[in-house]
């Protein structure tokens, strides 16, 4: 079955059940909450197709177990941290109201990592938008973004980043994150860019340096 057919089967349940590739209690390695303990829930399924995606195993829905939103939230509640980060895959391919409602019942703060390629759903304490050239982000996500995180693959990405910086709300945090395999090449450019444009910050994927999930 194609991802579309697998997706439609899940969508019949209106977000009460979701496919989970993995979940883990770790340290947020990126962006504004970098260094904070957080419970990550990685939903399966993405059709954005970034060629440099560091979790391509998350693209397919098939083969990943499906759980109720209560089971998903309950599993995380065993840990002392009270930040839940929903990532993927592209989490917004699913309606996420029921998941965020369940997480709130367990006193979680709800954070999302998204490309914004689908309309916003769910009740979020923090929205991190990492827009992609391969599928443009929805206005509903852009206007509610708390943190804009641009992946820098080459020097043309700085102008591209500024297009989004103009669209987010004024208090939105701005981050430039090197594409992992291009780090040696682009990090010096990012450093110079941030020194000249101090409204931007650098985000490195510190979990990869610490060898943690
Ligand atoms: C795997 S994605 C999942 C969430 C969502 N699909 C998205 O792209 O925002 C999680 C974060 O990792 C970033 N990311 C993915 N591959 C990367 C890479 N090779 N280097 C740096 N960041 C990467 C994404 O841009 C996103 O901010
Ligand atoms: N530690 C850690 N921090 C992260 N921040 C965003 C991640 C993601 O894949 O969404 C991620 C991840 O995979 N691990
Ligand atoms: S949108 Fe996110 S999960 Fe999907 S391919 Fe791009 S980086 Fe990977
Ligand atoms: Mg990751």
TrEMBL record:
Residues that bind S-adenosyl-L-methionine: 52-54, 89, 130-132
Transmembrane segments: none
Binding-site residues, [4Fe-4S] cluster: 46, 50, 53
Residues that, per the record, bind substrate: 27-29, 42, 87, 213
Listed InterPro entries: 7-CO-7-deazaguanine_synth-like, Aldolase_TIM, rSAM, rSAM_sf
A family per Pfam: Radical_SAM
Catalytic activity as recorded in UniProt: 6-carboxy-5,6,7,8-tetrahydropterin + H(+) = 7-carboxy-7-carbaguanine + NH4(+)
Keyword field contains Cell membrane: no
Keyword tRNA processing: no
Function: Catalyzes the complex heterocyclic radical-mediated conversion of 6-carboxy-5,6,7,8-tetrahydropterin (CPH4) to 7-carboxy-7-deazaguanine (CDG), a step common to the biosynthetic pathways of all 7-deazapurine-containing compounds.
Protein name from the UniProt record: 7-carboxy-7-deazaguanine synthase
Organism: Sporocytophaga myxococcoides
Gene name of this polypeptide: queE
